[in-house]
Input
Amino acid sequence: MSREGTSVELEKRRAARVPRGPFNSTPLFASRAKGAVIVDVNGREYIDFAGGIGVMNVGHCHPKVVAAVREQAGEFTHTCFHVVMYECYHQLAERLARLTPGGFEKMGMWLSTGAEAVENAVKAARYYTGKAGIICLDHAFHGRTLLGLSLTAKAMPYKRGFGPFAPEIYRIPAPYCYRCPLSLDYPGCGTACADLLERFLKTQLAPEDAAAFMAEPVLGEGGFITPPPDYFDKTADICRRYGILFIADEIQSGFGRTGKMFAMEHYGAVPDMVTVGKSIAGGLPLSGVIGRREVLNAPHVGGLGGTYGGNPISLRAALAVLEIFEEEDLLARAEELGKVMRRRFEAWAERYEVIGEVRGLGPMLGLELVKDRRSKEPGADEAGKVAAWSLEKGLIVLTCGTYGNVVRVLVPLVIEEEQLARGLEILEEAVSQALK
Output
């Protein structure tokens, strides 16, 4: 592959041949990456606080991942699991069956993208229950395919112009405490937002027509919205009482991102199915669904899958990722990172009026920026300034949220102390600049 050309030249070529739809958060072109640092084609280093949107929890080009990929590529790259099987497919299913919440018998299947995982979880839920309705949350993001977009809540840039959408998708208000849909305050509210699910089943969708309730433990694209501690206990109990499956979408929040292997462990609730992706394979495309044996085994032979689902190179990379977590004690590292960053962010919130709220779990943290703390008017322009200033100073950081006003941090868990310190220093400078 040719690596000739400066970023300016490459950007011209990109504009000439690649449609504008596939967006770019930065104008950078990567040359190489290692750990928590990306080097662009101009030779400049950037500290990576984006992690490929939550994909690089074990860092860029981890030696164990690279070695696993090379070894598998030398054996075979693809046979299609549906044609000729391979052992690493069920090896990973066995490992994840033990790691995901719940002591019941589980099965797992592998795909390529997060949206595919979501779609196959929905297919299994509908087949097993014989019901069609899927309930999701406001501010949710579940992918960009037709069904994924139907479940996703944000209009721009995701949904506008791409309808009509899939039927039998229903939405309830999200547990967004900072902007409570019920205008209540936690904990005095008794987590009344969870009760909205039961009310919905009595007023909008009969339980006899509801197959599943799907939710992210931390709403990623929606703004790192973090439900109250007892939210999922209450909603999972409602699902059990009404015979509705509970699907946890852990595609962004899984694999140590919150200081636990899976974010749902913070809540203690046990989902019937878990969708996984992003950081599962150290940067290679892989996603999956792990869940109750009787649910995933319900669809008929040939009803689930896809040509590239569970590519052997990606599966071997995923097995290497699990070894890295064990050998380097990355969950403990993630927990410590979360404490360090939260202390810094909360100190900034006392110092800078532009920060309306600091939220998240472990090192999956977001800063909601506002123009005014009393009105809570979203500070989308301010968030954009933070990202732009950071990039200028050598830090890659992303924004998110329905209102585009949340600065989100997804640092690789292997980041070195000096890199973390410098990145936080730049980010604080950027936040202070946003006030000017």
